[in-house]
Amino acid sequence: MEEVRVRFAPSPTGFLHIGGLRTALYNYLYARKNNGKFILRIEDTDRTRFVDGAIENLVNALKWAGIDYDEGVFFENGEVVEKGEYGPYIQSKRLDIYKKYVDELIEKDMAYYCFCTKERLDHVREEQRIKGQVPKYDGFCRGGSLDEAKKRIANGEDYVVRLKLPRNTNITFEDAVRGKVTINTDEIDDQVLMKSDGFPTYHMAVVVDDHLMGITHVVRGEEWLPSTPKHVFLYEALGWKAPQFVHLPTVLNKDRKKLSKRQGDVSVEDFRQRGYLPEGLDNYLALVGWSPEDGEEIMTLEQMIEKFTFDRVGKSGGIFDKEKLNWVNAHYIKEYSTEEIAKLSAAYMVEANLMTEEEINKKWDWYVLLIETVKESLSVLCEVPEKVKFLFGDLDITEDDAKEELSGEQVPQLIEAFKEQLDTVEEVDLEFANTVMKKIQKATGIKGKQLFMPVRAAISGNVHGPELKNIIYLLGKNELLSRLEKAKNYTKNITE
Question: Is the pTM of the predicted complex or chain greater than 0.90?
Fold first, then answer.
């Protein structure tokens, strides 16, 4: 059996889109499942959309997501490097290769030179639109003499090279997701293969590169499905065997429209900055369009590799559900050690101006306990500041439930008993935090909700939340005394 070879071939136009990461993930899973090779190729032939630094962003996003590849473009020691036997892996370095095959197609009368101006093309398309026709090239240059075309080129005229599709011909191919697909050539444009700047279009470059790099399975988004007959024709025209095509369903928002920046986060970097874990994002994305036979939802990369098949990929678009993503991500937050979550969440605390880096480092053990206190309630790491801010700054008693608890007749007695216990220690340590509530219960005879709820409200401003002993330790003696005094005054004002 031939070795499975798949590729992910993004354009360097900015940050990696979440849909692009899913395409890379499916390529990766299939390659690893079949002991094949996974290649990263950069398709940068559209120079108008090239963004500086985009290649590094793409490579770093895949690395962060834990999706490793075997050949192609890497980023090492601050530089873009290429590794593998089939390079270059950056299309702009392969222009001579494309020109060779474009010339071959022209000589075979399967492509032709086109000298139509942009103004003429715009006019033709506008007329077609008015008549209710599908706008496409009208074949004006299709029947021209090759010798005459070469003379015009020699005289310096601008031109492009177009694919010469046969008229009214059905082109059929097998897609691993869609099954048999047939499209008539009368529904397809004579696609530009080589632009006037000497760069190939996607359609030419992708066929040449996939063949020369030995790609066995082309796994890409379904937006390329209508173009695939052109690619199939090109393979035949050049005498090459076409790969297996696999067109993946589009990643959609809840309104069943394609994810776009207008609706919020769409790039991998957006999710990374918000504090999603790579394991959570990978796991969830795999489920947006695919499901394993056993219906399992929480899976490591290794488990996904074992279970992945294209026949479990759906035909309809996959809905990207943030709530489901958060549920999956919360699972992995719980799986991480508290120290790891503490390290990863430190930047959010600094950004929120709750602690400085120096304070975090100086009070590291305290900070780890702070994170442990809220870890079970986290869906994403950017939530940390909001979850812990009640421990920083002045006590804010605004919740109705807290106000109600502090209006109880036993509250003044509880506050005084707590203050008396604080007077017995130099500082609040873990032993004090673990035992103080029992001592207050013993001193006052108050127990259960009558004890715990008012104390919680008095020192945190909430009646629900993390473990009370953790809150007591984290606040420390001085802050506890300050908050108890404020709660005492609040209670006094209520009773008066």
Answer: yes
Determine the Cα–Cα distance for residues 489 and 412; give it in Å rounded to an integer. Answer: 10
Separation CA 471–CA 487 (nearest Å): 16
Instruction: Assess contact for 162 and 114: CB atoms under 8 A.
Output: yes
d(CA 252, CA 258) in angstroms, rounded, equals 4
pLDDT in tens, 174-193: 999 999 999 999 999 999 99
The predicted-structure confidence for 52-86, as pLDDT tens digits, reads as follows 889 999 999 999 999 999 999 999 998 999 999 99
Radius of gyration for the chain, computed over Cα atoms and rounded to the nearest angstrom: 32
For the chain, the residue count is 496
User: Torsion-angle region of residue 66: left (phi > 0), alpha (psi -120 to 50) or beta?
Assistant: left
Residue 71, burial from CB neighbour count under 10 angstroms (0-12, 13-18, 19+): buried
Other Cβ atoms within 10 Å of 20 Cβ, number? 23
- Please, which pLDDT band fits residue 262 given cuts at 50, 70 and 90? low
Q: What torsion do the CA atoms of 355, 356, 359, 361 make, to the nearest 10 degrees?
A: 120
Per-residue tokens: 337: 């050690």
Flag whether pLDDT at 339 surpasses 60: yes
Calpha distance 197→314 (Å, rounded): 39
Q: What share of the chain is helix, strand, coil (3-state, %, to 5)?
A: 50, 15, 35
pLDDT digits (tens, 9 = 90+) for 19-63: 999 999 999 999 999 999 999 999 998 878 888 889 999 999 999
Give the β-pairing of 71-76 and 79-83: antiparallel
Contact 216, 3 (CB under 8 A): yes
Determine the distance from the C-alpha atom of residue 161 to the mean position of all C-alpha atoms in its chain, rounded to a whole number: 37
Cα atoms found within 13 Å of the Cα of residue 441, Cβ hemisphere only: 11
Beta-bridged to residue 163, according to DSSP, are 111
Parallel, antiparallel, or unpaired for β 251-252 and 318-319?
Answer: parallel
The position carrying tokens 């013993």 is: 442
Q: Among all residues, which ones are annotated catalytic?
A: 261
- Residue 109 to residue 472: CA distance in whole angstroms: 83
Give me the pLDDT at residue 495, please.
57
- pLDDT at residue 378, as a whole number: 98
Which two structure tokens, joined as six digits, stand for 275? 């504090």
181, containing H or E segment:
strand 179-184
What pLDDT sits at residue 234? 97
More confident residue, 224 or 257: 224
Three-state SS at 242: coil
Two tokens, residue 62: 């895949």
